[in-house]
Amino acid sequence: MAARERLTAISKHLDHRPLATPRSPIGNSPPNNPPFPSTRSLYTENKPKMSTQPEHPTLLIPGPIEFDDAVLQSMSHYSESHVGPAFVATFGETLSMLRKLFQTTDTASQPFVLSGSGTLGWDLVAANLAEPGDDVLVLHTGYFADSFAACFETYGAKPTQLKAPIGSRPQLPEIEKALGEKKYKILTVTHVDTSTGVLSELKALSELVHRVSPETLLIVDGVCSVGSENIEFDNWKLDGVITASQKGIGCPAGLSISMYSGRAMDVFKSRKTPPGSYFASMKNWLPIMQNYEAKKPSYFATPSPQLIHALNTSLTQILSRPLSDRFAAHQEASQKIKKAIADLGLKQLATDPADQANGMTAIYLPEGVKAPELLPNLFKKGVVFAGGLHKEIAAKYIRFGHMGVSVTDPKRNDIDKAIKALETGLSDVGYQKA
Amino acid sequence: MAARERLTAISKHLDHRPLATPRSPIGNSPPNNPPFPSTRSLYTENKPKMSTQPEHPTLLIPGPIEFDDAVLQSMSHYSESHVGPAFVATFGETLSMLRKLFQTTDTASQPFVLSGSGTLGWDLVAANLAEPGDDVLVLHTGYFADSFAACFETYGAKPTQLKAPIGSRPQLPEIEKALGEKKYKILTVTHVDTSTGVLSELKALSELVHRVSPETLLIVDGVCSVGSENIEFDNWKLDGVITASQKGIGCPAGLSISMYSGRAMDVFKSRKTPPGSYFASMKNWLPIMQNYEAKKPSYFATPSPQLIHALNTSLTQILSRPLSDRFAAHQEASQKIKKAIADLGLKQLATDPADQANGMTAIYLPEGVKAPELLPNLFKKGVVFAGGLHKEIAAKYIRFGHMGVSVTDPKRNDIDKAIKALETGLSDVGYQKA
Asked: Model ipTM?
């Protein structure tokens, strides 16, 4: 096939399917999932041409995010044996690069990359680091703490949730008090809760935990923070950070990615009971991860070579520049967005600026504006935002994700376009700043 | 970027990494993973040019397999919201197509597609259909029955293995006897054991189970058979078939795919204890799968839109022709390969022709020929075979996978090339037919 025909074939395949008719959320549906108009031409107007991707609405939800061309192309890597030397080298290199992303040089730290999703990270923690009957303190800043607690219960651990009002986070004195009341094997914190955009402070939290309950493992749910927020695994003495591929790391969904301290691995190795999960068993995966990183072929379950190639490409790009620049770029974009939102007279769920994530913003809708009106209007302008997710207030807010290439690639104009779309979109649906 | 430059960029990215130096298998490593030479030009000689994929050695292991260009291109689909109507439609359509692949029209049948691997299917079965203390009969035809049994133990079920000599399978009278000795909640059978190439007969087995132990659920491990062997889910009254994306279905690895009968789902729904896994909990996933198939957005954990697009493309291709043609093509290629192997004076692990898989062949090496000599020789000829996996005899055999486009795409010459490579390769390493 000639080059031109091939590209036509690709474009044809990647072409838009007919967009669907309005749907009502039901059951476990995320609320406020609006009907999208099927108009295509409208959103291409103010969009700079991407290189190898066909034109499409800019995805600015808190994950999955927009992907770099080279990352997406890596997804089409030709088939390789999962135990052949070429792929083993790629996987091993990827695991080693994760150490840099998490800022850990302690050789006892252990990375894991499994086929799955961010959720699988909870199973890794709950089925391997907790044992039945263990007490776990779950700091609650939104939807995802409830789920992490449910995961612990599945494997027989006893989670206690410390909740904060929506838009806030549990404060250090309360946490100190809770840690004094019971001996907790594990404390979990959601670094950025995707449902609220609330950012938790890890350094001071870790100092507190190490001071008042030094045996407690500090586990971070970094699904919506790794790659967009600074995480100093060694310096902050973290015991585990779980994440996924499709948010700040900028790789398509399909991978559970995590890092554990030597201390956490020792807790795992000294379990009295076998791990509670088979697919998420560190007993099954630890030798595999160690072998891959030592560039030795190894098999427990078949990894996805294409996703690992994409992750490798994404990490190579991320690590080609200082991480501090990356986090500064996210902070800068976030400040710009938060200022624009304040200028529009809108409020965020996260009230205290210190509690506001740098990779996403959860925005209360103004009185009278409904997400099923606003979101399709934004879509027409070529911008995809997400509806609310926190069950108590889902209909009252929208979410704007600003991670990865949308903030780090100077060739894109994603953030300015989204701010502009939000301004005119709100006006279109009748909102006027008071 | 112009079309030509874009393709150059893609090719460059997909280019070969330097192939690694010899490695010894250790720990959990699959034995006989040979050192591969780093010579590139050698394997391109007798290979017809593929369309959009760069030249690469033809992967003929029992999964992952070679992929069709359009399937691989779907992996690079631009980013979409996992709850947006376009992707929800694609996922829903994919689930519906799976019903056709499994030949089930019973609306009570339930498909699941999760991010993970074939192994995750064992967790789905063991954590949802078995309860702690339940007896399970595991028919053993190789490596994978041991692992499935270990998975059941993880979730508290009590597996009993019924083993056959290597290269054979448990016979119906033995199975009938075993079913008479205990009340088994579940019987599992590996349709094709990837470690031995032994094919199990499902129809007669199902008739036996329904006759002598009608309450026992019949669960098929079809990881190495779905897409390459005929499976009539409804006609054969199966209760569950688990599989993965990267073998007969011809989609890159990263998905756990399975189908359960209404009867199996009723057993799940009448559990006395909660499911033993969180990530593999049908309680968490059932409403999501039902919503996606009804084209309603739904969220438990983020699926991989790119992998789902690739699966959609692959299923669309498979279902565009009669399934019977597909299975006949696999049978025909398999017969050709098995005849060539016999002509070479070689023996298969599976002794009885009725027990030989149609999508792979496990071949005993002749006396004096070692896999670490033969496999790199084949690699130089552009063909990748796998070493042995069954722990008792791993060094004594090799495996040849012949599934998917390698047997169904007339433009490829994969099978003939592989047979020729095997003939000359054996000769190169000193083998002469007695």
From this structure: 0.90
